[in-house]
# Entry
Amino acid sequence: MVTRRNFFTGAAALVGAGVVSRIGAASLPEAPMMSSAATQSPLMPPNGRPYNPVVTLNGWSLPWRMNNGVKEFHLIAEPVVRELAPGMKANLWGYNGQSPGPTIEVVEGDRVRIFVTNHLPEHTSIHWHGQRLPNGMDGVTGLTQPGIPVGKTFVYEFIAKRPGTFMYHPHADEMTQMAMGMMGFWVTHPKNPAFMPVDRDFVFLLNNYDIEPGSFTPKVNTMLEFNLFTFNSRVFPGIDSMNVRQGDRVRIRTGNLTMTNHPIHMHGHEFEVTGTDGGWTRPESRWPEVTTDIAVGQMRAIEFVATDPGDWAFHCHKSHHTMNAMGHSVPTMIGADHRGVAQKINKLVPDYMVMGERGMADMGQMEMPLPDNTLPMMSGQGPFGGIEMGGMFTVVKVRKDQKPGDYKDPGWYKHPVGTLAYEWKGAMPEAKRSSSGGGQSMPSVAPEQEIEMTVRKPTGHGGHH
Ligand SMILES: [Cu+2]
# Structure
């Protein structure tokens, strides 16, 4: 899926010759491009010091070249089309063909040189979030450098001093550029590969978009009312599962570049926060959790031993963040009796559908026609029916027979006999209810009673109610 773009045939005329000669390179390193949004196999280091590579969820790691002992990377900031899930594409800005950009993996002590070519319609820069580096390499437009002009290439060079978990993003017109998806992951591996070893090491970024159903480009001025909450610019059911072998020690690293915090929750296992963007946590500072809240701008590395086979949900615990674009502004109808009402409304609004009188679950298979480029609010089929989730949701699949180094989806879990919730088919005991006289029970309303209600045709988006 990686294609290579030769700079002497493509954008050579755009490259500032002065920049290249200043660092003495004969040419720019080639810039590999990615055409797929699928999770790519880990990039085994072909040269340099050895390390245990990470796996980027629905992403990839950027190949490099060695030039006199310096690891050279080439990022191209450019408009991209990102598939958010099958059925929905978005016009985003990113790097080397995708958004987020590729993960950069280096080893503690590496001298790193990153060429950044700007193919966006406005200036940009890259800030290397969390890194120890010379101040002039910090990438803050106006403060430590001028913005990289359209068509130009800048060079960042520093020694990756501290091992750990980092990210990169522009520090130039940030509101627009981050709302459009400009971001990427960075891992500096320890020079001793035996330091805090794990069997699987997954990375991804949390991001959010406001894309009107039927349109393709995020609204960049949105401050709070986002309608798509993503892991690495994918929404469920478009997010790959994280597939591990029973007994594996698993690390999952996440960074938050949305506009709100996300309590990330894992089923079936306890984990510990072993690292932040500030470094590894001291072992005596850790405690067990099943949910960890990640604030805006923070990164967290969590670790657990995958002891229990199964398909374990892994998701943000804010319930609106496990929904997709449609439906956030549908009025609540639970408990309202619609009989007769829909027919009356249909005379005025022919395509009106009554939704939600028994809850919202049937919206997973909502039959209201969707605009062309959007997703139902809750979807994804599991072995037992609709999963009724969207957004920031995926599954950690723990399997006895998942081979080391194999990241392929093993399919749905087959539950051993006697380990599955089942329907009770025996006699039902008489329910004992306390009689009224105090308490907060709601008076019941007979269906034939008049209920006054206002009805609004659901719109795609327009705020929460
Ligand atoms: Cu969330």
